[in-house]
Design goal:
Keywords: Glycosidase, Hydrolase
Largest sheet: 8 strands, parallel, barrel
InterPro entries: GH (IPR017853)
CATH superfamily: Glycosidases
Protein name: B-glycosidase
Strand order of the largest sheet: 1-4-7-8-9-11-14-15
Organism: Massilia litorea
Number of strands: 17
Helix content: 25-40%
GO molecular function, one term: hydrolase activity, acting on glycosyl bonds
Structural class: alpha/beta
Distance between the termini: 37 Å
CATH topology: TIM Barrel
Number of helices: 14
Strand content: 15-25%
Shape: globular
CATH architecture: Alpha-Beta Barrel
Length: 414
C-alpha cells in the first residue's frame, strides 16, 4: 500500500500531437494524420508501454466527429483498442485548437454545443475503458486565444487584443460547461486543464514596456486558470473542483522578451533574465494549491536528453519545496512538424523518417536512456505489467529522491 499514492498509474506520461485547427488560408489541419498516428496507433501505444508510460494525452477531433451537432466517435475505436491492449490510460483532449466550421466561438451556441459534445464524448469513451477517466476540455486556452484571436493564424482568424480577450472568455465559459457535462456522465472524472508556463520581460532598452511585460507574466498568463477555478468571473461557474489538476506546459520558448506586435521573442540560452523552472512552478502552486503535472515538455534534436535532465532537476527542486507534482508528460511521443514550415521538429521520444510512403518510428536512444535513468532514480517501473494500477505511483519515492539528490533551482537550467 502506497503511503502517498499518485493520481496517475505512472509518474511519466506522454501524448500525441492532435491539433485539428482551421489553419491559415482556411486549410483544415489534422496533425494525427500528418504524423501517421492514425495508422500506427497500436505500435505507438505498444512503444509507450515498453517504456513504462501508462498515461497518454490523446485527442478527440471535435471538427471531424461533430457534424451539425451529430457526433460519430467510431474513428476513436482503433485508439481505444490500442489502449486496452497496452493498459494505457488516456487523458482525452476534447478541443485541441479545432472546432466545427458551422460554429461561431463568440456565440452562446458555441458553449451549448461544446457541452453537448463533451457529454456525448464521455458517454462514448467511459464505458469502453476502465477508470479513472481523465479529460482536458480545451487545450491551452491562453495560447489559442493569442494564436486565433490576436495573431490570426487559425480560425476565427482575429487580429486584435480585444478579440483575443473575448475569445479567451468564450473558451473559459465553454470549458466550465464541458466539465459539468462530463461529470453528469461520470461524477468521478478528473480534469487536467493545460496552459503554458510563461515569463515575459521587457527589452533592456525599453523600460516603458516593463509594466506590459509584468502584466502578461503575472496576470494574463493565469486568467484562464483563474476563471476556471472561480477566482475571476465567478458568474461563469468555475471552482477549484472544476480546475482540478493544473497542467503547466514548459518549453524554452515560454520565456520571452516583450514585443508590441506579434509573438514575443524567445530568450536565448544563458540570458540572465531566465527564471528557474522551479520558481515558475511555485508561482502556479502558490496561486491554486491544486495537484499539478508538467503537461508538455521536450527538448529538440540532440538536446532532448539534456532537457529532460534539467527538467527533472527543477521538478525535484519543486517537490522538495512541497509542491504536489503528480507527473511529467514527455510530449510528443512521436515527432511533429513545425506548423508553419512543415519541417520535423525532432522533439519526440521517436523521430519520424519517411520510408516507402510511410513514417517509420525511430526512437531517440539518448532521450530514452535518460528516461530510464530517472525511472530507476525514482523507483518507477520501466515497462508496464498487466495492471498498471495494481502498484500506484508512490509519491513518497519521488519526495525521497528530491531530498536525496538535493537539486537546487538553477536559472541556467535550459
Amino acid at each position: 500500500m502506497a503511503k502517498r499514492p499518485g493520481i496517475f498509474p505512472t509518474f511519466f506520461l506522454s501524448g500525441f500531437e492532435c491539433s485539428s485547427f482551421n489553419w491559415k488560408e482556411g486549410v483544415r489541419r489534422n496533425l494525427v494524420a500528418e504524423t501517421g498516428h492514425d495508422r500506427h496507433a497500436a505500435e505507438d501505444y505498444q512503444h509507450l508501454a515498453s517504456l513504462g508510460i501508462a498515461v497518454a494525452r490523446e485527442g478527440i477531433p471535435w471538427p471531424m466527429v461533430d457534424k451539425s451537432g451529430c457526433c460519430d466517435f467510431s474513428t476513436l475505436d482503433p485508439y481505444i483498442e490500442a489502449m486496452k491492449a497496452t493498459k494505457i490510460t488516456p487523458i482525452w483532449d476534447l478541443f485541441h485548437y479545432g472546432y466545427p466550421d458551422d460554429l461561431d466561438p463568440f456565440s452562446d451556441d458555441f458553449v451549448t454545443r461544446f457541452a453537448q459534445y463533451c457529454r456525448a464524448a464521455a458517454e462514448y469513451v467511459t464505458p469502453k475503458l476502465r477508470g479513472p477517466h481523465f479529460f482536458t476540455p480545451i487545450n491551452e486556452i491562453t495560447f489559442f486565444s493569442f494564436c486565433a484571436g490576436e495573431w490570426g493564424w487559425a480560425a476565427p482568424f482575429r487580429c486584435s487584443r480585444d478579440d483575443r480577450m473575448r475569445l479567451r472568455l468564450a473558451l473559459c465559459r465553454a470549458a466550465i460547461a464541458g466539465v459539468k457535462a462530463i461529470r453528469e456522465v461520470d461524477p468521478e472524472a478528473r480534469m487536467v486543464h493545460i496552459d503554458p508556463l510563461v515569463r515575459v520581460v521587457a527589452p533592456r532598452d525599453r523600460p516603458d514596456q516593463v509594466e506590459a511585460a509584468r502584466h502578461e507574466t503575472e496576470e494574463d498568463t493565469f486568467l484562464a486558470w483563474d476563471i476556471i477555478s472561480g477566482r475571476a468571473h465567478p458568474e461563469f461557474g468555475g471552482s477549484p473542483e472544476i480546475l482540478d489538476i493544473v497542467g503547466a506546459n514548459n518549453y524554452a520558448f515560454g520565456q520571452m522578451e516583450y514585443r508590441e506586435h506579434g509573438p514575443h521573442a524567445a530568450l536565448p540560452p544563458g540570458d540572465d533574465r531566465i527564471a528557474p523552472l522551479c520558481e515558475m512552478l511555485d508561482t502556479v502552486w502558490q496561486r491554486y494549491r491544486r495537484p499539478m503535472i508538467i503537461g508538455e515538455t521536450s527538448g529538440f534534436g540532440h538536446g532532448r536528453a539534456d532537457w529532460l535532465r534539467d527538467v527533472m532537476g527543477e521538478s525535484l527542486a519543486a517537490v522538495r519545496r512541497g509542491m504536489d507534482l503528480q507527473g511529467i508528460c514527455l510530449f510528443p511521443a512521436v515527432d511533429m512538424p513545425d506548423w508553419h514550415t512543415g519541417e520535423w521538429l525532432h522533439n519526440g521520444i521517436c523521430d519520424l523518417v519517411e520510408a516507402d510512403g510511410d513514417l517509420r518510428r525511430i526512437p531517440d536512444g539518448a532521450y530514452i536512456d535518460e528516461l530510464r535513468r530517472w525511472q530507476k532514480e525514482l523507483n518507477r517501473v520501466t515497462a508496464l505489467d498487466e495492471d498498471p494500477y495494481s502498484d500506484p505511483v508512490e509519491l513518497q519515492d519521488v519526495i525521497d529522491a528530491a531530498y536525496r539528490l538535493n537539486v537546487q533551482p538553477d536559472k541556467n537550467w535550459n
